[in-house]
Amino acid sequence: MKIAVINSGSSSLKFKLFEMPxxxxxxxxxxxxxxxxxxxxxxxxxxxxxxxVNFADIDAVGHRVVxxxxxxxxxxxxxxxxxxxxxxxxxxxxxxxxANLEGIKVIRHKAPDxxxxxxxxxxxxxxxxxxxxxxxxxxxMYEKNQIRRYGFHGTSHAYLLQxxxxxxxxxxxxxxIITLHLGNGASACAIKNGKSCDTSMGFTPLEGLVMGTxxxxxxxxxxxxxxxELGLSADEVDNTLNKKSGxxxxxxxxxxxxxxxxxxxxxxxxxDIMVRRIQKYIGAYMIVLEEVDAVVFSGGIGENSSYxxxxxxxxxxxxxxxxxxxxxxxxxxxxxxxxxxxxNRKITQA
Length: 350
Ligand code: ADP
Hints:
The protein has helices at about 45-50, 80-90, 95-110, 130-135, 140-145, 155-170, 220-230, 235-245, 245-250, 255-260, 265-290, 300-305, 305-315, 330-350; strands spanning about 1-10, 15-20, 25-30, 60-65, 75, 115-120, 175-180, 185-190, 195-200, 295-300, 325. By secondary structure, the chain is of the alpha/beta class. It has two domains: about 1-120, Nucleotidyltransferase, domain 5, CATH 3.30.420; about 155-330, ATPase, nucleotide binding domain (Nucleotidyltransferase, domain 5). Adenosine-5'-diphosphate binds near residues 183, 257, 299 and 300. InterPro entries: Ac/propionate_kinase (IPR004372), Aliphatic_acid_kin_short-chain (IPR000890), Aliphatic_acid_kinase_CS (IPR023865), ATPase_NBD (IPR043129). Belongs to the acetokinase family.
């Protein structure tokens, strides 16, 4: 059986083809600079053409889709209705969902009979209780305008849960952990009895931890001050908070390897601010969970930086909690989701 995993972004497309059940990688390609000036790849159709893959030969194609809104609580088989629903969610993920859809549509066009499955970044957090996902804003902004916490990185947190439960020798549904996905984007998740019950990213991936270039939690009035007093346009504020802040904004670069090697004050401060934010979230989630089996470190920083891990856990309270380092594998999680959808499909068809 052949299963492909596609992560179709606005300017890049990652494609991996796996032979299952062996897990052998048959093709692994990355197409970059899609639609950029002077690029030879004008659009997603050309990007997918350039892979030279016969999609009719593939049993299932799993797509990473960033936003599933409130509608998608699980991975689903893609049909016309699902495509419309992903389209309806574009206002919530204006950069990501259109690019994800492009990938889906091109493959539908090239191989209409090939099964496609959408795996949503938000779906793992569908179990958040209302007190965790409703913001203290006018309530109709949740009801009418869909403003709420959605959470992201769900595929990674779900994978980490499975792996952590196995390492802890516990049933998934009895596992209580705090997962930290610390990559360029970063998020924390409180998992109670195998379910996401709080997470640090919110309405967008901007909220929460200090990230490579995103500020994470700030006083929201700062955004207005930037507009009203500093004269930045809404787009400039967006760009500042998402692309010029975080570690980059604090010390001029966002590669933690380099920052760790520096000895200047600003580099040290950037890491201290990042670590303190992580600790604050762990503290908050310990209260939410009441029992914590382990804190799980993952993502490029969590997996590789013993400096960051030790600084985070170097605390009287945290010292008594087990910490695990698990290499995340979102692609494997997407494959497992595809297998789950295919199995359920067979059951409903039988
Ligand atoms: P992305 O979110 O883009 O997938 P990754 O999960 O690959 O990002 O994480 C990127 C981050 O991991 C960068 O900040 C990088 O510096 C950091 N990183 C990778 N290797 C190491 C290392 N050996 N020590 C410290 N940080 C590392």
